[in-house]
Amino acid sequence: MFLCVFFPGAGGGNDIQWCFSQVKGAVDDDVAEADIISTVEFNHSGELLATGDKGGRVVIFQQEQENKIQSHSRGEYNVYSTFQSHEPEFDYLKSLEIEEKINKIRWLPQKNAAQFLLSTNDKTIKLWKISERDKRPEGYNLKEEDGRYRDPTTVTTLRVPVFRPMDLMVEASPRRIFANAHTYHINSISINSDYETYLSADDLRINLWHLEITDRSFNIVDIKPANMEELTEVITAAEFHPNSCNTFVYSSSKGTIRLCDMRASALCDRHSKLFEEPEDPSNRSFFSEIISSISDVKFSHSGRYMMTRDYLSVKIWDLNMENRPVETYQVHEYLRSKLCSLYENDCIFDKFECCWNGSDSVVMTGSYNNFFRMFDRNTKRDITLEASRENNKPRTVLKPRKVCASGKRKKDEISVDSLDFNKKILHTAWHPKENIIAVATTNNLYIFQDKVN
Amino acid sequence: MSAEISEAASAEEQKEMEDKVTSPEKAEEAKLKARYPHLGQKPGGSDFLRKRLQKGQKYFDSGDYNMAKAKMKNKQLPTAAPDKTEVTGDHIPTPQDLPQRKPSLVASKLAG
Questions:
Q1: Residue A68 phi, psi dihedral angles, 5° rounding
Q2: For chain B: N or C, fewer Cβ within 10 A?
């Protein structure tokens, strides 16, 4: 029997019951490439939820104000704004096709009435301003209502325009374009806690930008070897510390994380800390390095811990301990005996992301077959849930799923061989304060909430 | 003496068997090596990484195209087979052969 916990943001103690809330996107199975969701991110208040797709488009959802009468559910997320962030480009000089796919979206904390976010594709980062317009000036002296200019000789009196209310219009406009700073493909952007600077990371370099300055960025990490033949690892993700504006981390394809302090030197090629779990050399196989590649790194909200995701597991590291993670959670260990076919169909290179809940007590990550997993760090219990339209009755509690690794399959279990490896959940996001999660399947966005009452 | 050697040999065999039994990863590795005997020794090494860094490379040489056009004048330019996905220097590519790179004019279905 599960107990229902009502205080928001908590995940520990008693188990949460997750319910379907909404699903966005087309129902048809034939997925256009442009509709593949490539990033999902809540803003700092959780009121806004942004998605980016392979077609370079951004869709922002806004949570409606809670309905006081219907207190059994939190506000729904409805479309607030949508715009084309990036377009496909061709670099003629390098004969290189530049995809418009949005790799990451990061929100700035709100400073005034407008909202700001950074969105990036492989080469260019853009700062977008999203603002509301709910009134417009009417009664111009020199213009007709339809915009045509009046014949000035017919103007005999002076009229001052007055602002009148209008239907809410949400406008997105690009305020800054940060281009031409990356030779390789951008995998991460992260806004500093100073709210003035941010970093962008590609396979071999990390640059530091000021949000106001587009014609200049500082290179703070460069791991490109003098001879490319000697290349052994690439940068896979990077993030600024949530509180210390001088600290950031970056992960590598070899499973290491380096913590750098920008006060130490201008070029942070020498790390301050190196986080690496020692490997038993007798266990090493052809796949070892590939599955140890870190696909995502996220600091806890507290800043005390960081979480990394590699192909088969999620690891929690204490920033004070470099030689091993403090917690390791197996996401889908049953895939270890399928690595050969996963290498052949390229799934072994899938980049899963991970996220923390608001209180850092539960972590979540995606898997195959549209399954996603949550690990409660306090109770040490985990759960597997499925994002599927079959469960889409609001307030119906989701049924936990179980994968049968070998042997006799129990009723309601799924065998490893029946898993659909085309249905991957790579991107998930957790509301910063409440138990509301956004889970992206290939082309649909699911929103789940914990059961209220 | 020979008894010792045969003992050592069988101990090694047993460890190998144990490895295959206890490590699913090593069993998968054996499967892969059986299917692709020429697979490189260093899987995470530079070849694989360099391929990753080169993502997005497309080859259309306008110089080749224009020179060929000038040479051939009246003759028909050989065009790519319709199902060719990669344009290389083996034939004269035409701008029509390159996949179209158009921005999405359609709104996202998430906003529908």
A1: -65, -30
A2: N
pTM (2 d.p.): 0.85
Residue A340 with chain B: CB contacts under 8 Å: 28-29, 31-32, 35
CB A204 within 8 A of CB A186: no
Q: Which domains does chain A have, with CATH numbers?
A: 18-152+161-450 (2.130.10.10)
A147: left (phi over 0), alpha (psi -120 to 50) or beta: left
Q: Is the ipTM of this complex over 0.95?
A: no
Q: Residues of A with CB below 8 A from B16's CB? A: none
Distance (Å) from the alpha carbon of B25 to chain A's nearest alpha carbon: 6
Q: What distance in Å separates the CA atoms of residue A59 and residue A52, rounded to the nearest whole number?
A: 7
- DSSP helix/strand/coil, A252: strand
Question: Where exactly are the structural domains of chain B?
Answer: 12-59
Per-residue pLDDT, A203: 96
Provide the token pair at A436.
Answer: 């509301």
Is the Cβ–Cβ distance between B92 and B77 less than 8 Å? yes
Mark yes or no for CB contact B103/A84 under 8 Å: yes
Residue A99 distance to chain B (closest CA, Å): 8
Residue B38 touches chain A, beta carbons under 8 Å: no
Contacts for A7 with CB less than 8 Å, ≥ 6 apart: none
User: Residue A154 corresponds to which tokens in the numbers above?
Assistant: 């017919």
- Facing residue for A340 by CB, picked from B32, B43, B103: B32
CA distance B97 to chain A (A): 15
Distance in Å, alpha carbon of B23 to nearest chain A alpha carbon: 8
In this predicted model, what pLDDT tens digit does every residue of A207-244 receive, in sequence order? 999 999 999 999 999 999 998 888 999 999 999 999 99
Give the HSE-up count for residue B53: Cα atoms under 13 Å, Cβ half-sphere.
Answer: 22
Averaged over A250-255, what is the pLDDT?
A: 97
pLDDT in tens, A163-202: 999 999 999 999 999 999 999 999 999 999 999 999 999 9
**Residue B106 confidence (pLDDT):** 79
Smallest Cβ distance to B53: which of A203, A230, A340?
A203
For chain B, give the percent of residues with pLDDT over 70: 35
Q: Report in angstroms the alpha-carbon separations of A134 from A49, A137, A139, A161, A393.
A: 21, 11, 17, 16, 35
CA dihedral A371, A375, A381, A382 (to 10 degrees): 10
Contact A275, A259 (CB under 8 A): yes
User: Within a 13 Å sphere around the CA of A242, how many CA atoms are in the beta-carbon half?
Assistant: 13
End-to-end CA distance of chain B: 81
Quick one: pLDDT at residue A46? 97
The three-state secondary structure class of B29 is helix
In sequence order, what are the residues at sequence separation of 6 or more whose Cβ sits closer than 8 angstroms to the Cβ of residue B79?
A: B91, B92, B94, B96, B97
Residue A305: pLDDT over 90: yes
| Amino acid code (one letter) for A69 | I
Q: Say if residue B9 is exposed, middle or buried (CB neighbours under 10 Å; 0-12, 13-18, 19+).
A: exposed
